[in-house]
Amino acid sequence: MLMATVMKPATPPVMPRIAPREELNPFRIAQIQFDMAAEFLKLDPGLRQILRTPKRVLEVSIPTKMDNGQVKVLTGFRVQHNLARGPGKGGIRFHPNVTLDEVKALAMWMTWKTATVNIPYGGAKGGVICDPKRMSKTELERMTRRYASEILPIIGPSTDIPAPDVYTDAQTMAWIMDTYSMIVGHEVQGVVTGKPVSVGGSAGRDEATARGLLYVVEEACKLKKISLRGASVAIQGFGNAGATAARLFAEKKAKIIALSDTRGGVTNSRGIDPFKALRYKERSGTVVGMPGASRITNDDLLTMKCDILIPAALENVITLHNADAIKARIIAEAANGPTTPHADEILARRGITVLPDILTNAGGVTVSYFEWVQNQEGLGWDIDEIRARLQKIMVRAFSDVVDTMRRHHVPPRHAAMILAVSRVAEATLVRGLFP
Ligand code: GLU
Fold it and tell me: I want to staple 80 with a disulfide (CB 3.0 to 4.6 A). Which of 43, 56, 154, 373 is the partner?
């Protein structure tokens, strides 16, 4: 079954025929994207079956004592999609809309992401269905520790290494690291990344997703002859990736013309000061209402005229319904899965460059890799070293993707997928099938 090799295609690629009705199930979308690359690479059917399904899925119940004394039983997942190139790697998401299919998709995207930037990991992801905004810190701690203990049999520094994702942070990782270490009886820093620096976290991990994205956008701007200085930037989502991107782009003298969070957005064509937005959000919980900017909706933000649009929130925000109305020149995906395959097709036809998630937001997992290496080796690299290493990896990955685009005349996501899937396929083939 695994005897076939990864063949070079004989004919130029065609965009695959995708179903007439728009698919919004993230796992189905991830499979559609994979099928396109597998078809292009003419992968053996058996190998395709292996790569389009997760290796391991764990669902756990998380009984959690709430502050009022009642016990709430929450549901969590950890999915390992593929471990052919190394241990599983990927964040943990706390969100009310988490589903198993979403976690499966996110795990699969992690496999392609670690392969795109060529770091020695497979892909995994976790999620807990909960509403962290309505939980106290003590409730979150109890839930996190119980979730960590429930997924403990399948995580570890050489098996699967969690990290932060939507609504989880360095504190969440410290609790997981502590829970794991207490249970196994000794300190294991390398079981998670994105930890606080005081307990083995890496310099630069906080800013890594946004900084990696900046490096990729800088390279894309060079190719498209867009000057970042003065370029207009709209950012959907003001969490870690979105807020840090706003700051980094402003430092490069780009103009942040719109920002948003779950409650809505704000715009000012003369530019918004990201530091003021951050301070305002810290006080009032949202950017909406900040002085010096007028109110817009998230939908308005996505379709406004700008040079660079950065979706930095959740999946499926650029779809069949708004792809025709997008006016950005470049879309840089800080979120995972913000663009549907239908929207991709429309944007490609309209000449809008989509810098895909599996390349563009890979700075986070790349600095996670640095953190893990530092933990294994007992090293501590400084911020300049981290940034230099990150830039090298992001620029190399960007140029690998551009080479693939040029060679095969395909849009960036398809090129990144071809590159990533061929690397994972090669590792799977050379290892062979057990037993
Ligand atoms: N959650 C981040 C992502 O989606 C980071 C994962 C990691 O550092 O392992 O890429």
Answer: 56
Å from CA of 355 to ligand 1 middle: 17
Domain containing residue 71: 54-199
Neighbouring residues of 397: CB distance < 8 A, sequence distance ≥ 6: 116, 117, 118, 216, 359, 362
Is the distance from the beta carbon of residue 360 to the nearest atom of ligand 1 less than 6 Å?
no
Q: Which residues are registered as beta bridge partners of 64?
A: 72
Residue 267 lies in a domain: yes
C-alpha span between 302 and 298 (Å, rounded): 6
Percent of the chain with pLDDT over 90: 95
- What pTM does this model have? 0.96
Residue in 113, 118, 180, 124 with CA at minimum distance from that of residue 148? 180
Q: Is the CB of 341 under 6 A from ligand 1?
A: no
Burial-class residue 179 by CB neighbours within 10 Å (0-12, 13-18, 19+). Answer: buried
Say if residue 251 is exposed, middle or buried (CB neighbours under 10 Å; 0-12, 13-18, 19+). Answer: exposed
Grade residue 19 by pLDDT with cuts at 50, 70 and 90. Answer: low
Atom of ligand 1 nearest to the CA of 89: 9
CB 58 within 8 A of CB 147: no
Nearest Cα residue to atom 7 of ligand 1? 365
Q: Active-site residue numbers?
A: 125
* Distance between Cα 400 and ligand 1 center (Å): 21
Among 159, 175, 199, where does a domain finish? Answer: 199
Q: Is 145 in the pocket of ligand 1 (CB under 6 A)?
A: no
Mean residue pLDDT of the chain comes to 95
Please tell me whether residues 81 and 131 are part of one structural domain: yes
N-terminal to C-terminal alpha carbon distance within the chain: 13
360, 388, 403 — which closes off a domain?
A: 360
| Residue 366 beta carbon below 6 angstroms from any ligand 1 atom | no
